[in-house]
Amino acid sequence: MGMFERDQQVFADAEPLDDSYEPEDIRERDDELEKYQRALQPIIDNRPTSNIFLYGKTGTGKTVATKFMLSHLETDAAEYDDVDLSTLWVSCENLSSSYQVAVALVNELRRDQGKDRISTTGYSQQRVFNLLYEELDRLGGTVIIVLDEIDNIGHSDDILYGLPRARSNNYVEDARPVIIGISNDFQFRENLSPKVKDTLAEKEILFPPYDANQLRSILNPRAEKAFHDGVLEGDVVPLCAAFAAQDTGSARQAIRLLREAGEIAQAEDAECVTEDYVRNAQDELEKNQLYEGMQELTTQGHAVLCALAYHQSLDEVPIRSRDLYHRYVKICDRLDADSVSERRVRDHLSDMNMLGLISVYERNEGLSAGRYHEYELDVPLKAVLDVLQSTNRFEEVAGIIQSTAEDNNLLQADLSAY
Questions:
Q1: Is 404 annotated as a binding residue?
Q2: 379 annotated ligand-binding residue
């Protein structure tokens, strides 16, 4: 017997439980898909098309719905000789400015033509924009540009001003750019510059969190394909759905929980996946989700987390948001990043509290100072620094914070409670 043997009793086909799996149909998003279809219909009719922005937390179906709709759009557009359609998809996960997004778009367009990539440095922003317009015009027709996780660009939103106006400003003649922006931040539009808000003329589609019934509907067909008959006990899928609904309402979380429960059962050579395996999987994933929650924060969210970690390294916690804000602005200045208002920093702190990353304390000092909140990390400082150091933009600052914490003997290396 070898160390590794193929599973014969739990998983029949684990692909439906993979993050990259694209289902044949999209469940529990009928209203959103209907709005999406109406927003895309002008492309088929050869009419002016509004930009489209999708908002919702991670795992609420924005990306999978976009891939589903664009796949159908491309197939249907091919039936019409007078519809010239291309799609371009760029993830903004590691892009923090319009300049970087424009470079990524140029290189994506050039890759399809087998042309040399352009460097991420050495060009002015306007030069990169001009190269982008040249590549778009060469392609011609309607070009749908999907900018996934667009909120990462923060206040550097010039590209959202330039692309929608490219045709009216005669930067392009043969191309009609249409932007589809996907954002995890419901407040993203509120932080755009006034000129961008006026220019975008976008359709907004909100993707709310799933409830337990919706998550069961999403999980059931995947479970039927993924597991051998009779392996799942009857309460497994409902329990996975309930755990995810109570936490984030994320289909991704529910699917990962089901897969993890199956993998634990497989490792123990069990014949069935039971509720106990789901509960064990939930404990395991909760630890991983804290890391993921930190990794998936926007650039602004990371800057706020960085500021809190700095005060944690000096043992200056819990700390008020107004004091935290001063450090946050200094970090943004050091990173050459735009800073947001103190109110938005509190919004980011609220999001981190919901993710279980920080603790919030309400203070009431009566008439003299009134009510206010104080904040501190609710996860080990070392875990926060590990995540920040794995993010290129924050690596240097995180290193400084780590040195400060070591000097003050405040760096907790033991993550056993995590």
A1: no
A2: no
Was 291 annotated as part of a binding site?
no
Do 35 and 133 have their domain in common? Answer: yes
Model confidence pLDDT, tens digit, residues 196-231: 888 887 899 999 999 999 999 999 999 999 999 999
Binding residue per annotation — 142?
Answer: no
Question: The tokens 């999987």 sit on which residue?
Answer: 281
User: Can you give the CATH number for the domain in which 218 is found?
Assistant: 1.10.8.60
Contacts of 321 by beta carbon, 8 Å cutoff, 6+ apart: 342, 345, 346, 349, 372, 373, 375
Q: Which two tokens stand for residue 224?
A: 């039927």
Antiparallel, parallel or unpaired: β 141-148 and 85-91: parallel
Per the annotation, does 382 bind a ligand?
no
Taking a C-beta distance cutoff of 8 angstroms, is the pair 49, 42 a contact?
yes
pLDDT in tens, 26-84: 999 999 999 999 999 999 999 999 999 999 988 999 999 999 999 999 999 999 999 99
Q: Looking at the domain assignment, is residue 182 inside a domain? A: yes
The whole domain housing 147 covers 30-206
Co-location of 377 and 343 in the same domain: yes
Structural domains of the chain, count? 3
Whole-model pTM over 0.90:
no
Residue 228 located in a structural domain? yes
| DSSP secondary structure string for all residues of 258-308 | HHHHHHHHHHTT-SSB-HHHHHHHHHHHHHHHHHHHHHTS-HHHHHHHHHH
Is there a binding annotation on residue 210? yes
Look at the alpha carbons of 45, 46, 48, 50 in this order and tell me if their dihedral is positive or negative: positive
CB 129 within 8 A of CB 162: yes
Q: Is 64 annotated as a binding residue?
A: yes
Q: Burial, 296: exposed, middle or buried (Cβ in 10 Å; 0-12, 13-18, 19+)?
A: middle
Q: Are residues 190 and 248 in the same domain?
A: no
Q: Is residue 416 part of a domain?
A: no
Picking from 66-75, 209-218, 291-300, 322-331, which range would have the lowest pLDDT averaged per residue? 291-300
